[in-house]
Every structure is written in C-alpha cells, then in structure tokens.
Design goal:
mainly alpha; two-stranded parallel sheet; 9 helices; globular; transmembrane helix; signal-anchor; glycoprotein; carbohydrate metabolism; Carbohydrate sulfotransferase
C-alpha cells in the first residue's frame, strides 16, 4: 500500500477509502487470549502495583473501559473484530499448531521458523494459576469481571474461562 511506510500506524489516522484499501491488501491475523489469563499475566509481570491479585483486579475494574491499560482492556474494544474481517484468529494455548498452519498458508517453512512451544504445559499452568487467583476474588469481583469482559467472552471461544462460568 502506498502509505505503508508513513509514521502513522493507527487505522484511525487514515480516511475510509485508505482503510478499506489497506485492509483488503493485508492478511489480517488476530491473536486472542482468555481475558482472565491476560489479567494474571499482567499482574505477574508487575504491571499493577497492587500487593494482591484481588486488589489489582479492583484497580482494573475501577479504571473502567476507557481509562484502562491495553494490557487488560477487552480485546473487542482494541481489535474491533465486528468491523474488521480477520483472515485468521489464533488462540493462545494452540500457538504451535495454529502458527504452523498460518506459516504454511503463507508459503513459509513452518518448522524452522517456529520457536519450541509446549502448548499443553502452558494450558495446564494457566489452569492451575487461574484456580489459585480466582479463589482470591470476591463473588462481586467475579461478577464484575464477567460483565467487564462479556463481549470478549461472547466473541471468542473461551469455553474453559473462569469468567464464563
């Protein structure tokens, strides 16, 4: 696309005709992750200054949709999956399988480019962490988180998410 090398990186900086042309000319890939796992990862990386996971979750809920960090904002508000027709949606936890398929579709040698991913171990670890972290939350926080991420839970198949229970 002719304006590919501009400093502008957000689609909102382009007019509607340019946005349409760009979106039609690219392969669009969306990487999604269970919102509760995103919260856990953000907390563990120290992005929240809270001493406990429960107080961190309360900070997230208090910040709301518009003032929150991209690290925990609902994916639907960040990636606009209802407006942009993504060619691929890659789920965290199935990266090795899905990235291999994506690279083969792009005509690239999948085996040599993929890092060693152990998806089953990652899934087991996050399941265990989720159980531990979820138990720290009050019933009210659990309800508020489910509501906060309701559109992500409706848009993507996070069937085993603690928030969808």
């Amino acid at each position: 696309y002719r304006r590919l090398h501009t400093k502008e990186t957000r689609l909102s900086k382009f007019n509607q005709m340019e946005i349409k042309a760009m979106l039609e000319s690219y392969t669009k890939v969306l990487f999604v992750r269970d919102p509760f796992h995103r919260l856990i990862a953000t907390f563990l990386q120290g992005m929240g200054i809270s001493p406990s996971f429960s107080s961190f979750v309360q900070e997230v809920l208090d910040s709301g949709m518009h003032n929150g960090s991209v690290a925990w904002k609902p994916l639907v508000s960040l990636c606009q999956p209802c407006l942009i027709q993504y060619d691929y949606v890659v789920m965290f936890g199935f990266l090795r399988q899905e990235l291999g398929h994506l690279l083969r579709r792009a005509g690239l040698p999948a085996g040599s480019l993929l890092p060693e991913l152990t998806d089953s171990q990652v899934q087991w670890t996050y399941r265990w962490l989720s159980e531990q972290m979820f138990s720290e939350l009050s019933a009210q926080q659990k309800k508020q988180l489910s509501r906060f991420y309701r559109w992500d839970l409706a848009a993507f198949p996070f069937s085993s998410s603690f928030l969808s229970e």
